Each structure stands twice: as structure tokens, then as C-alpha cells.
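Quick question about two entries, pasted in order.
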Amino acid sequence: MSFVEELLRLIAEACLAGAVIGSIYLAVACISVLRFGRKRVATAAPVPVTILVPLCGHEPGLYGRLRALCEQAYAAPVQILCALQDASDPALADVKKLAADLPKANIEWHVDSRLHGRNMKMSNLANAIGRVRHDVLVMIDSDIVVPPDHLARVVGELQEPNVGAVTCPYYGIAEGNHWTKLSAMSNNLQFLPSAIVALATRLGRPCFGSTIAMRRELLERIGGLHRFADHLWDDYAIGQAVRETGLQVAMCSLAVGHVCTESTAREFFDYQWRNAITTGGIDPIGHVGSVIIHPFALAVLAGVLGAGDQAAVLALVALAGRMALADCMRHRFGIASTLWLVPINDLFSFGVYITSFLGGTVIWRGQRYRVRSDGKLLPVSQ
């Protein structure tokens, strides 16, 4: 046997071993997903809250998402403050229409073009922070869909002992063609289950931009939003800064929806690539280990390398495991997946995962950046 043949055989065996471990992981993920959120739901007296929403550009369905924030089942005063950089931003039309349609809702907007770093979202929020009226802040990305009890649940968690911030897991919502479905599926069948497993095994401590609730005093203590104005993974960095004060970042058992709008192959791969680079930057060792979340692709690769019947059997087992996970996600979160896209998505996601180790640039809001090891964004010209 030549050196190349021996090398291919070893790679095939490694892929088979990874597919076995990955199939076990899928079983653990199914159990973890079904058990997620069984803890006692925290309740507390409502307190005044300011919801901060960064806006940039046209977003389909934005009006409805903002209206859901205005119609929360919450007994205390709520200020909704939308932050923009440009008065001609089309998102502002949705905000003004909502203010006219719901005159009793306290919805405001702040336009300020100053940039404090390369993360425009953090710059928007930092510019608007002076307009905040209440001590409790809830920062929510503009592509997030929240249920009516979202604010009550999050603020209840925030008032628990030793909690400095509260975040929410999020599932993908596909609004469009097969690319948006694949994007949502990557979130629902890979990212979210892996985050839940990491929480269950205490191997991860996430903080998601889908929701970050904290007190204004604590935000000022950790350096304010300006501190994160150059970070790609600003949400994780905020959570890390909170933990450095000795306080916890609580994960609310309530999941919110993230609207996926990646309607072309380029948009899909740019988004998945940025997520992979982010994950690898936050936890390089964990990113390497996350190869096991791709058992179907590993089995297929082993088959291509000549593993034969073993690879075929493991591919079927892994695919059945992913289908079972899809059913668990449907049962726990009400998420439906287009099942015939599952194997396609697994192969695409594995391809993005492998190529993420090659490094390179990321595209965010139409701008291309290099990412330093500490998460700081640099223009490609530097």
C-alpha cells in the first residue's frame, strides 16, 4: 500500500470514528433540547424598561417585529428607542408609521451618524444611550421576533440573585426561498442544539444579540457600548465583560425567532462563513471539536474515501439522528424543517466548517473586514 493510500485509509477511519461520536452527540442533543427550559420560570414585579433596537436599511417585516415590542404583556412603563445613523434610512419610515398607528406606545428614534468603531450596530446603540430613560435596558436585534411575554420573562430573570445580564436563545425563521430555509435550518438543527448541549454540559457560556438585558449601571461599569464598537462578536464580548464582574449571564428559557433573509447563494455562504469565523474566534479548541456535529457529512466523506458499507450504514444512522433532532426541535420550539433539505444542509454546513479554518475576510452589512484573534474588525486595506 502506497503512502497516499495509507493516508486516505487513515482519514476514512477517522471520519468513521467521528461519525460514530457525532451520532451519539445527536442523541445527546435530542435529550438536551427536550429538557431545555424545564427550570422554574422567574417572576418579579415589573420595573420600567428601555428597549434599544439598532436599525440599518430596509428589512422585510420590520414593522411587525417592532409592533410586537410595543404590544408586550408588561405592566410597567416601556420606552422603545430605535437607533439609526441616517435620517433617510428606509427603516425610519416603519418606525414613524408605528408611532402614528400606536400613539399610546412610547416609541422614539434617534438619528446620529457618528461612528465609534467598525461595528455599526454598537455605534448606533452608543449614540442613542443618552436618550435612555430607565435603569433596565433590553437590547434586541432588529431581525428578532418576540412573543408577548418576552419582556416579562427576561426582566424576571434579570431580578434573580447574582444575575448581571439575561440573554435568549433564538431559532431561525425562513421567509423566502430555499436559501432562507437552509439558513434557518443551519440555525435550528446545528447552531441552536449545539448551544443547548454546551449549556447542559457547562462547556459554553453564550450571550446572544437576540436579547441582552442588563442594568444601565452595570453597562457603564463594564465600559459602556463604546468598548465593543470594534468587535465582530460584540454580544459574546458583552457577556464576557459581565462575567468578569462576578455576575452571571442567565439564559432565559424563552426562545425568540431570528428572521433569515439570505435569499441568494452568496448571501447564504457569507452569513454562514461569518458565523463560523465568529465561533472559531471565540473558542478555537471548541470549534475544532465541533467537527462531531457533522456526522452525516463525515460518513459521506468516509464513503468517498472507500470505507464502503460501514460508511453507508453510518450515513443512514446519522441522517436518522438529524431527522430525530428536527422532530425534537419541532416538539420543543414549534420549529418545522423541510426534511428533504436536511442532508443538503448538512453537507453545505460541513463545507463551510472546513473552509473556515483557511481564514480570510468576512462581509458584514456590505463591508469586508479581516478579523483579529481578539475579535476586532479591521478593513481589508490594513
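Here is the second entry:
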Amino acid sequence: MTWTPEQLATVGEADEAHISTYRRDGSLRSFIPIWVVRVDNDLFVRSAYGAAGGWYRHATHDGRARIHVHEVETDVALEPVTDAALNEQVARAYRAKYAAHPAALGTMLQAPADETTQRLLPSS
């Protein structure tokens, strides 16, 4: 499944998205705010707290999460970004989009956050 142009625009242009993960019983944990960036026709997220971040631990264990941005709410699969050139494109997208938040942005551009880059793939 691929993102629709409307979903890409809505999620990619939003200042923040909200992400949740599933419990073992299938219920959703509370949504938490997260920054999301768009590179071409893909959406990416990072964990500000690195691999120790709660949502990140759960999402990468299950390989799925749920995002909510305005009228878009959908399940997503997570795909780790291991390509250094793509990870740098994601970093540039973070710099461009969140330049007005330099303190928080710095966290997202260095370890351990930059080691947690995940591509979001729509799965529902």
C-alpha cells in the first residue's frame, strides 16, 4: 500500500503527528506527539530518546504503530533506514521543517535519535 497524495500532504506538512502502539490485547496505548518529515513520497520519524523511547521500543518490537494527523488516522508499518545517504536526506528534511525549534531539533539530528530513523508505510 502507498500513501495517497492527500495523506502525504497532510502528514508531511503537519507540525507534529501523534503516534501510538498496540498492546498485546490489541488496544492502543495513548497517542504521543512526534515530529514527522517527508522525503519525496515517503514519511519518516525518529525517536528523540533513541532506542530507549517507549513508543519506539513497542513499535519496532511489533513492526507497527498507528499515526494520527488531522483527518488522517492509519496503521503503519515501520521500516528502519540503514542507508546513510537516505538518513542524511531525512536529517535535511528535519532541519528545513523544524528550524524554528533549534534546541529540540539538535536532539533529532544527533545520536541516539538519528540512529532510530524509520520509514512509515501505510498498512491499512
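Reply: The mean pLDDT is 95. The first strand starts at residue 17 and ends at 20. Hope that helps.
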